[in-house]
Amino acid sequence: MGLEAKLNQDGFITTTVDAIVSWARKSSVWPMPMGISCCAIEMIAAADPKYDIARFGSEVMRFTPRQCDLMIVAGTVTYKMAQVVRRIYDQMPEPKWVIAMGACTSSGGMYRSYSVVQGIDQFLPVDVYTAGCPPRPENLLNALMTIQEKISKTRARDFQDIIPQNLELSNAK
Amino acid sequence: MDAKELITNKVKENFSDSIVEITDFRNDLSIVILPNKILELAKFLKENDELSFLMCKDVTAIDWATRKKRFTVVYHIYSFKLNFNLRIKANLEEEPYRIETVTSIWPSANWYERETYDMFGIEFLNHPDLRRMYMPEGFEYHPLRKDFPLLGIPDSLPLPQKPE
Predict the structure, then answer these.
(1) Residue A169 lies in a domain
(2) In a domain, A104, yes or no
(3) Contact (CB, 8 A) for B87 and B57
(4) CB A92 within 8 A of CB A65
(5) Is the ipTM of this complex over 0.85?
(6) Residues of A numbered 17-76 whose beta carbons fall under 8 angstroms of chain B's beta carbons: which are they?
């Protein structure tokens, strides 16, 4: 099918560790589906056969943060829920990325109100913001591809400084 | 005698000195009662055989902001027997804003009163479990009061620190 079909004998390729590791990482981004409200429906739609997030290697939605690389925050984050979102984010292993899906998550959206966090970047490091209310599945896939592009530019030594996450949970007193 | 007349007559008969007003606006009957008589009225409306208002559909409040009696507590109750919706109102006097709970009569009022306490800061006396419904414990304000700003009080709700 690919390269190996051209080979008449045992072949080998040369590459760098950084290139192969980042290629592997970006091709199997396992998302944490943080579906809080209506954006979650479009996130689910992105996983169905019509849009098929499996084409990008991200079909394994893990419902445990321990196995995830990417948190898709899909929905309105209230101040009460912010504690939960952060707690789950803290439990994800490094390296990890965050998509802020939709208007509410990115900026509070139409909920300009006392109860809704006006943008999750107040308490999470967001990598990609997705516009829309809710964004269409194509838009989420575009965000995922942007994340992949970002991952492909990483090198192993970028993560050397990352101290293992201190699991002192954010709302523990 | 239709349901409306029946209720009006019964209530006037038994609570003549504690009724502030009975109004009928667009076919909705409202009884305004003195706040210290709410429990007696509720008990009467539920337990009278001809009325039997068995269901409490909603308890909420109105903040009139500038009025002297600032808060009105509103109860919506329903009688299966008469197929009739009735509204009861009680205007609260000065601070502290307090009224007796009706949970002992209609258990469904439990969470409605918790919500009203959370949003308006009206204390329901003898309520079995008067905690906040929506806002986090320890929050000091009552969001649906008219003097509460739309975007809230800065730093009144805790947010996790951004990791670096």
Answers:
(1) no
(2) yes
(3) no
(4) yes
(5) no
(6) none
